[in-house]
């Protein structure tokens, strides 16, 4: 084949990609939500996307694809064409799939479009629990070993990470971890007294705290929270937590790796604009989320820092199935 | 009539779930083989359930699966013993009453449907399936077959794909572009 | 008192009234088509109604919810294919009636009874919500486990025919429910190292396969049989009929409200439990159960509609969803700037009364649309089989795919369809399989939670049961029902009878 022809073919190929990117989107975009309808990822994604759609001038059809702790959705989108027409709307979990033995893919197969917001962990207790603050709880655990029932949501979930943090900072705590399949059911069980303490995301617990049905023990953050100004920070009890905090689950929109740069740029711009919508900001603030709205290199850096910190925390507390080292996740 | 038999004579084929098929006092063709298959499958599942976590703890993830597969194996074996003792139904044969040609043919259709759904896309696969199936069953002219098959397909497609935005496998047809085209027309018309 | 007047909001604003009506109408059809679920419809509505005010959005959702729960009974009666999981029990006696040409009468009774059940649910929601939600919260993991065991014992009444085959079918269902990654520890169960197995098997796929595909294959054997002509002159049941079933429907509605109010259990379990209850208390049904007994229609249909009101109880009082649909509605309230939770009743009591009013209106619309559209609906049965069989198969495939956008579910559905076909031929009941799948997680998860909470000690576990009144009641019920189904009971009864005589 002559060289001219080859270059012509390449040029044609390039021009069509450019044409595609300029017109993008020419068809509807599939947004695959990793979690079930009604969950927090679902709610956040369904409330930001209409604003982003307006900015993008296209349609995003959202579908929930649940199962295997979100791995099904992740694999589906990772395997889709990298043309910007299939997006993953996910949370933090995939960053732990490798170390927890849940899958062989994580966000390194993706380009972050926008990391929307971050949640704040809070430790809450049943309203009749025999202690009112963090140090009281530690005293209770010390004097009643193996009696405190602590809610969890499976390995790699927020409660397991917070528990790992507590075990690392305070030394091994002798408690019973009762597993639930999500923070909603676990918080229900907390109100009913089936468990005594539960590390939860602030947004999920805040209304119940306001009503006095459960009591806040400590906020796992380095800054006082505006929504609950009276609840003490865990760092005020033990400085050791400063090493790991701020930490929190996050929500983000992702496209498969190798999606054309201009398509990513267009999507990022749309979601950044969508996330800046005052209605959406108010909604997120009311639920106690910290807005992030980061994309590009900043988002990639955030993801790798998050993964390093959390994966090694789990490894050090013995929860990880495979050492992060195996996957080239450096110790922070 | 056997006290356990609550159905009526016409429904030994299990047309309704409340009236399960089969005869209580007799063995249908293939019934014993089915029961043996279930027993073996249950034993295999029991072995697999043991592999989940062994006798690790009462709360182990494998505890309930082991208990249930054990019950499956025992009950399936009991069915084998009971069925083996029964007399065979003399008036029925496997190829006439349990697996007639049409049923085998349709099971084949369904398997082909499942295999083609992803690569070919929903619309084409469903169109071929409906046309062939209605042609085979109704034995009417092509005009009637095509009209009924494609007409109902369009309705189903609109309900699921357009109204309920179920992302059925698109396959080789540029379905999303097609919908977007209409959306643009609509919005152009509206503005 | 002003806030209470919010109950009339729906009636005073025409647009809201229309939306509830449209929602109910659409809901009936969504419910009737297997694979289109209310959950799905409501989550699509979240995006659709995004820019609306909160009242119109909620009106539409409430309508769809109420209509959808009822609509599932339509296809259950006419085609023996439950449109929704909560209509499984309805098929057992509804379909035999349709086979006798009494589909019109069956739908009529179903509609009136669904209305009645819905009404009871709404009344309880309006009058006793805080009390019921407190009761629901007091259920501990061991109580949920006992409830699941109680449910599994229903196998006895669901398996007409051979009991041992019913036991097999029930345990098969529990095993099916365990496939995939365990939600508590993420351990792989029955996945055989296949990645496609990790997501587990959707129980809707099992239901559509076992009831839809196997039914269609069954009917292939008599394609040319003429369809039964349906009598549609007497649709609305007489006052006497309604009065006759009033005591039963009150009991089954109560079952529905309580099961509906418990977080984690919904209309499907409620309907099956109510069916079992009806079978137990009805000493002499006019027609035997399983062959078109009215009681077998009344019980599940009152219960699943009563469960709607029930599901709203924890949602409105505590911000805890009673089922999947109310979970999405909580999300919708968030998006519209409300904060559902225990404070909602205090901060925005209008919202509570508005929802009660909307539910009540939807219930009335359900009665109207339910009783008027029957003529066209029953025509479905009269469509030639050569057309309806391919359509059922196609709808089953689309429906199974739609549940989770997964091709794997389609394969499962087809596999269980063929398997179910053999099960029917050889006298294995299908109901217990679905029952097992529904109850699998409830049993498994809560058993493990309960025993973990007691540090793996059985002694402490039973101590817990005997010291809690609720657990004790459930435990005694389990024992009694178990004994009544075994030969032991017959022996015992004989002895007692001899002594007294």
TrEMBL record, chain A:
Residues 1-21 form the signal peptide. It comes from the Bacteria. Coiled coil: none annotated. Gene3D superfamilies: Bordetella uptake gene, domain 1, Periplasmic binding protein-like II. InterPro entries: BUG, Bug_dom1. SUPFAM superfamilies: Periplasmic binding protein-like II. Keywords: Receptor, Signal. The keyword Signal applies. Belongs to the UPF0065 (bug) family. This is Tripartite tricarboxylate transporter family receptor. It comes from Pacificibacter marinus.
From TrEMBL, chain B:
The chain crosses the membrane at residues 32-50, 62-81, 102-134, 146-173. This is Tripartite tricarboxylate transporter TctB family protein. It comes from Pacificibacter marinus. Pfam families: TctB. InterPro entries: DUF1468. Keywords: Membrane, Transmembrane, Transmembrane helix. Residues 34-169 form the DUF1468 domain.
Automatic annotation (TrEMBL), chain C:
The chain crosses the membrane at residues 6-30, 42-66, 106-132, 144-176, 196-217, 320-339, 351-374, 386-403, 423-443, 464-492. The keyword Membrane applies. Keywords: Membrane, Transmembrane, Transmembrane helix. Residues 17-435 form the DUF112 domain. InterPro entries: DUF112_TM. It holds the Pfam family TctA. The keyword Cytoplasm does not apply. It comes from the Bacteria. This is Tripartite tricarboxylate transporter TctA family protein. It comes from Pacificibacter marinus.
């Amino acid at each position: 084949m002559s060289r001219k022809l080859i270059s012509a073919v390449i040029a044609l190929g390039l021009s069509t990609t450019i044409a595609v990117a300029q017109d993008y989107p020419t068809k509807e975009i599939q947004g695959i939500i990793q979690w079930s309808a009604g969950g927090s990822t679902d709610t956040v994604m369904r409330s930001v996307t209409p604003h982003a759609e307006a900015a993008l001038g296209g349609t995003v059809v959202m579908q929930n694809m649940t199962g295997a702790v979100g791995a099904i959705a992740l694999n589906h989108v990772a395997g889709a064409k990298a043309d910007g027409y299939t997006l993953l709307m996910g949370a933090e979990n995939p960053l732990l799939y490798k170390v927890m033995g849940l899958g062989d893919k994580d966000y390194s197969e993706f380009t972050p479009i926008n990391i929307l917001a971050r949640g704040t962990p809070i430790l809450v207790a049943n309203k009749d629990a025999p202690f009112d603050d963090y140090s009281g709880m530690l005293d209770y655990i010390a004097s009643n070993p193996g009696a405190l029932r602590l809610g969890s949501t499976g390995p790699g979930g927020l409660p397991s990470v917070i528990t790992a943090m507590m075990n690392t900072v305070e030394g091994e705590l002798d408690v019973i971890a009762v597993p639930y399949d999500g923070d909603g059911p676990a918080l229900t069980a907390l109100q009913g007294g089936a468990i005594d303490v539960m590390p939860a995301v602030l947004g999920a617990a805040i209304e119940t705290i306001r009503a006095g049905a459960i009591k806040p023990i400590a906020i796992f953050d380095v800054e006082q929270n505006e929504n609950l100004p009276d609840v003490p920070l865990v760092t005020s009890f033990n400085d050791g937590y400063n090493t790991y905090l701020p930490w929190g689950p996050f929500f983000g929109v992702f496209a498969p790796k190798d999606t054309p740069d201009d398509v990513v740029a267009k999507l990022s711009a749309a979601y950044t604009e969508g996330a800046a919508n005052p209605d959406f900001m108010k909604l997120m603030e009311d639920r106690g989320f910290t807005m992030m709205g980061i994309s590009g290199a900043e988002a990639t850096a955030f993801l790798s820092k998050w993964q390093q910190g959390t994966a090694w925390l789990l490894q050090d507390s013995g929860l990880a199935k495979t050492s992060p080292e195996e996957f080239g996740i450096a110790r922070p | 009539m056997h006290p356990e038999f609550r159905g009526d004579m016409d429904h030994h084929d299990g047309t309704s779930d409340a009236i399960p098929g089969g005869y209580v006092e007799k063995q249908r063709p293939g019934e014993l083989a089915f029961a043996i298959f279930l027993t073996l499958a249950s034993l295999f599942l029991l072995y697999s359930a043991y592999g989940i976590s062994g006798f690790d703890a009462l709360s182990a993830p494998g505890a309930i699966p082991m208990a249930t597969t054990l019950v499956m194996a025992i009950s399936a074996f009991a069915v084998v013993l009971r069925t083996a003792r029964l007399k065979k139904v003399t008036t029925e044969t496997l190829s006439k009453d349990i697996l007639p040609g049409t049923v085998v043919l349709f099971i084949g259709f369904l398997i082909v449907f499942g295999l083609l759904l992803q690569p070919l896309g929903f619309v084409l696969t469903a169109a071929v399936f409906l046309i062939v199936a209605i042609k085979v069953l109704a034995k009417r002219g092509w005009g009637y077959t095509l009209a009924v098959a494609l007409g109902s397909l369009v309705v189903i497609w609109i309900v699921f794909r357009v109204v309920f935005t179920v992302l059925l496998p698109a396959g080789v047809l540029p379905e999303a572009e097609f919908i977007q085209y209409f959306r643009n027309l609509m919005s152009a018309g509206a503005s | 008192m002003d806030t209470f007047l919010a109950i009339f909001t729906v009636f005073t604003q025409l647009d809201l009234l229309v939306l509830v009506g449209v929602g109910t109408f659409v809901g009936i059809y969504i419910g009737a088509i297997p694979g289109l679920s209310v959950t799905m419809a409501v989550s699509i509505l979240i995006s659709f109604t995004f820019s609306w005010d909160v009242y119109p959005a909620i009106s539409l959702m409430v309508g769809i919810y109420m209509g959808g729960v009822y609509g599932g009974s339509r296809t259950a009666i006419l085609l023996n294919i439950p449109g929704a999981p909560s209509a499984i029990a309805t098929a057992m006696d509804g379909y035999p009636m349709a086979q006798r040409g009494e589909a019109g009468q069956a739908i009529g009774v179903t509609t009136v009874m669904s209305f009645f059940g819905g009404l009871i649910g709404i009344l309880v929601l309006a009058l006793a919500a805080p009390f019921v939600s407190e009761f629901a919260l007091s259920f501990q993991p061991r109580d949920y486990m006992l409830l699941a065991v109680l449910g599994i014992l229903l196998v006895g009444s669901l398996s007409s025919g051979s009991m041992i085959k019913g036991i097999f079918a029930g345990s098969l269902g529990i095993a099916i429910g365990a496939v995939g990654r365990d939600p508590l520890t993420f351990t792989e169960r029955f996945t055989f190292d296949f990645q496609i197995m990790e997501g587990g098997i959707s129980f809707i796929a099992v239901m559509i396969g076992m009831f839809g595909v196997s039914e269609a294959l069954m009917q292939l054997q008599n394609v040319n049989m003429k369809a039964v002509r349906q009598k549609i002159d007497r649709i609305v049941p007489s006052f006497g009929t309604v009065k006759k079933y009033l005591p039963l429907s009150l009991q089954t509605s109560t079952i529905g409200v309580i099961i509906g109010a418990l977080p984690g259990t919904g209309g499907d379990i409620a309907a099956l439990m109510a069916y079992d209850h009806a079978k137990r208390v009805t000493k002499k049904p006019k027609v035997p159960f399983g062959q078109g007994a009215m009681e077998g229609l009344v019980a599940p249909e009152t219960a699943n509609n009563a469960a709607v009101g029930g599901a709203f109880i924890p949602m409105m009082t505590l911000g805890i969803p009673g089922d999947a649909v109310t979970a999405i509605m909580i999300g919708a309230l968030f998006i519209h700037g409300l904060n559902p939770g225990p404070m909602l009743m205090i901060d925005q009591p209008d919202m509570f009364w508005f929802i009660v009013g909307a539910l009540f209106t939807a219930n009335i619309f359900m009665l109207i649309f339910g009783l008027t559209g029957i003529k066209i609906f029953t025509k479905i049965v009269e469509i030639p089989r050569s057309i309806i069989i391919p359509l059922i198969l196609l709808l089953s495939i689309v429906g199974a795919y739609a549940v989770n956008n997964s091709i794997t579910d389609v394969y499962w559905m087809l596999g269980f369809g063929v398997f179910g076909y053999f099960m029917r031929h050889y006298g294995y009941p299908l109901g217990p399989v679905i029952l097992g799948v529904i109850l699998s997680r409830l049993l498994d998860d809560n058993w493990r939670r309960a025993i973990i909470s007691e540090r793996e000690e059985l002694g402490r576990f039973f101590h817990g049961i005997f010291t809690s009144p609720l657990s004790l009641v459930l435990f005694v019920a389990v024992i009694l029902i178990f004994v009544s189904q075994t030969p032991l009971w017959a022996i015992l009864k004989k002895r007692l009878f001899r002594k007294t005589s």
